[in-house]
TrEMBL record:
Its EC number is 2.1.1.33. CDD domains: AdoMet_MTases. The keyword tRNA processing applies. Catalyzes the formation of N(7)-methylguanine at position 46 (m7G46) in tRNA. It holds the Pfam family Methyltransf_4. S-adenosyl-L-methionine binds at residues 66, 91, 118, 141. Keywords: Methyltransferase, S-adenosyl-L-methionine, Transferase, tRNA processing. The gene is trmB. This is tRNA (guanine-N(7)-)-methyltransferase. PROSITE patterns: SAM_MT_TRMB. One of its GO terms (cellular component) is tRNA methyltransferase complex. It comes from the Bacteria. Residues 147-152 are annotated as: Interaction with RNA. It comes from Marinomonas transparens.
Amino acid sequence: MQDNNTGLQEPVKKRTIRSFVVRGGRMTEGQQKNYDANWEVYGLELADGRIDYQNVFGRKSDVVIEVGFGMGASLAEMAKNAPDKDFIGIEVHPPGVAKLMMLAKEEDITNLRVYCDDAIEVMANCLPQKQASAFQLFFPDPWHKKKHNKRRIVQPLFAQQVANVLKEGGYFHMATDWQPYAEHMMEVMEAQEQYENAAGKGLYHPRPEWRPLTKFEQRGERLGHGVWDLIYKTIGL
């Protein structure tokens, strides 16, 4: 493609598989100010490559990774309630990243960092291998239509990518409010040799106390909607 201002050819961007679909990513002026003001403290850059958790947080600790944290309230609450652990959130939606960093600053949360990038690229290029204690994926897009099921993030390859960043005995914790997706998650995960179901083969896990109830989830409970948690532990092969 030619740049009409310079006459130079723009590089053609290679299409890659992504773990998300961007919806309404434009930030308000206030969100942009929060983003810019807090990024130096909380932000991690994809371009910086492989990180070292101890260098990032200044200590050795259990590290929890969360993909797709939305507007960040749940992740901020978890980080605040577990000061002995360190948390890394990965979210492609800039307003959500801005909101999480604002919450972290307001609550003086220091054990939290964030990527505003695609999780697949961050996992492949930035996260240390076999070191994280837990990986969280709460209420991902269920892609309700059957023809779109292949777009669901929980697939065999993704399960393997998660296992690559978890240490032996680390946990992959998923939650969804869409029963067909819960069944899909179960089918995918039960077939993975590098995991075992923490609740027992073929069983869903009660919501653990460390996963806060979101406002959306609380509303769903009042309406009688179900939520399914799945927790799988990595095992040595």
